[in-house]
Structures are given as C-alpha cells and as structure tokens.
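Let's practice the habit of predicting before peeking. Look at the sequence and jot down your guess about where helices and strands might fall. Then scroll down.
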Amino acid sequence: MSLKEKLMEDMKSSMKNKDTLRKNTITMVRASIKQREVDERIELTDEDIIDIIAKQVKEKRDVIQDFEKGGREDLVEQTKKEMEILLEYLPKQLTEEEVEEIVKETIKEVDAKSIKDIGLIMKSVMPKIKGKADGSMVNSIARKYLK
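Done guessing? Here is the structure:
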C-alpha cells in the first residue's frame, strides 16, 4: 500500500471514529500533496510525500516554540499531538546518537577541518537521513565537532 493510500484509509477511519484532530492533520497533508501534484503536474512518489510530511513536522516544531513564547499551552499541546500523528507516516526517527555517528563518519569522509566546511557536511549527511532526522539537529551536532 502506498503512503497516499494509507493516508486515505487513515482519514476514512478517523472520520468513522470521529477523531477530528487526526482527520484534520491528514487532510492538511493530503492538501499539500494534491497542491504539489497539481502545480507540477506529476504523481508524487512515497519519497516525495515523506519530504512533504517532514517539512510539516519541521514547521510544527518551529510553531511550538512561538506558542510557548506566547504562553499558549493549549496550542502547544494541540500542535504536539498533530506532530505525533505526522511522525507515524515518517520512517523511524534516528536518535541523536545515531545522527552523531553519521555526522562523525561524514566529517571523516569529506575531510572537514573547520566550521567553514559545514555546508559540505550538510550536503553529504542530509540525503543519508532524509525524513529520519531534523536538519537543525544535524547542523548543531556538526558544529559541535567543527570548531
């Protein structure tokens, strides 16, 4: 079953179960998928859909920080729940230790010496962890090892 079909099935079941938050979250993802398919006149692959979902998870993380600054705990909780739903459709997320290992290997591979080489590291690491970890985590780990 493709990811698109799984999203459709899950949306149907959330409607039957009257799970409004899940239904709305899946609808948002499906709208993004449809928008991109219409704009680019293509059929998206599962990998493309994972990119869309990963982007939405990243946006949710950023929004949570803003809600916390504004003291909106109700919105923080709702956004965290939406993020949990989205994470169900992504590949298993890597732990910080696993990402750290990948970054260390990549630093050796590309022979990075200073912080100036961070772009090179990011370019090499991101395809390896696509959809499995956040780019900001990779960046902060790389900065820890490059002075």
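How did you do? The chain has a mean pLDDT of 91.
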